[in-house]
């Protein structure tokens, strides 16, 4: 449940990043940021110690509050807090990212002077991928706790729940250059990284004389110039 709160805060943060006139943006500034970070932490503690636990059912390969034991009613195992959490997360996530999609469309089509940067677009898609798994899992988990669900639907919900917790690192490593560079620096030994940089520099140094022989200079400011012509070569 703490990860659900984190996803909602992440979506709100992306809204504030695209539309900096939102007043709620102040919760991510200054010392208020510590209060914002404490919300998922406290929510996790509450859900762990003060709500009914969820039990894994091997027959359905998913998590259910009802252990399905004979002689017990399903209503004895209802977790109201979990149900409210999933309803809020699914609804809030859908509303937040629908707003972001509309805002991005408006800025890209009608307000060219205020168009968002490539970095902001990448961050937006990363956030959508991360939070969509939470939203899908929340929708299915609310439904299957109260209504009959085919095994395929239960399996999709379980996979979405697993992706919600395990796909974050993969998304950041594959789509975020800063995180990917940090992982490489952490995992790859420095000797190998230095050799790779030396090899890249040597290749660049070899290419420069070849360009000068054919009458071309390396690109300067995004253009390529020749030694005899004054025009720009594209």
TrEMBL record:
SUPFAM superfamilies: Family A G protein-coupled receptor-like. The chain crosses the membrane at residues 33-57, 77-102, 123-142, 154-173. It holds the Pfam family 7TM_GPCR_Srt. It comes from the Eukaryota. InterPro entries: 7TM_GPCR_serpentine_rcpt_Srt (IPR019425). The keyword Transferase does not apply. Keywords: Membrane, Transmembrane, Transmembrane helix. This is Serpentine receptor class gamma.
């Amino acid at each position: 449940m703490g990860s659900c709160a984190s996803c909602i805060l992440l979506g709100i943060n992306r809204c504030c990043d695209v539309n900096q006139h939102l007043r709620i943006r102040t919760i991510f500034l200054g010392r208020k940021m510590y209060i914002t970070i404490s919300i998922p932490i406290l929510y996790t503690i509450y859900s762990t110690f003060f709500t009914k636990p969820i039990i894994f059912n091997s027959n359905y390969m998913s998590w259910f509050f009802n252990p399905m034991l004979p002689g017990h009613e399903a209503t004895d195992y209802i977790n109201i807090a979990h149900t409210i959490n999933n309803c809020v997360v699914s609804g809030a996530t859908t509303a937040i990212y629908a707003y972001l999609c509309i805002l991005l469309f408006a800025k890209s089509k009608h307000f060219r002077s205020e168009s968002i940067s490539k970095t902001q677009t990448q961050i937006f898609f990363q956030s959508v991928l991360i939070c969509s798994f939470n939203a899908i899992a929340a929708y299915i988990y609310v439904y299957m706790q109260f209504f009959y669900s085919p095994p395929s639907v239960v399996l999709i919900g379980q996979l979405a729940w697993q992706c919600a917790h395990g796909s974050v690192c993969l998304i950041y490593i594959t789509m975020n250059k800063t995180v990917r560079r940090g992982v490489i620096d952490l995992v790859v030994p420095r000797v190998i990284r230095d050799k790779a940089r030396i090899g890249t520099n040597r290749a660049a140094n070899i290419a420069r004389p070849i360009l000068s022989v054919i009458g071309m200079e390396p690109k300067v400011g995004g253009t390529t110039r020749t030694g005899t012509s004054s025009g720009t070569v594209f």
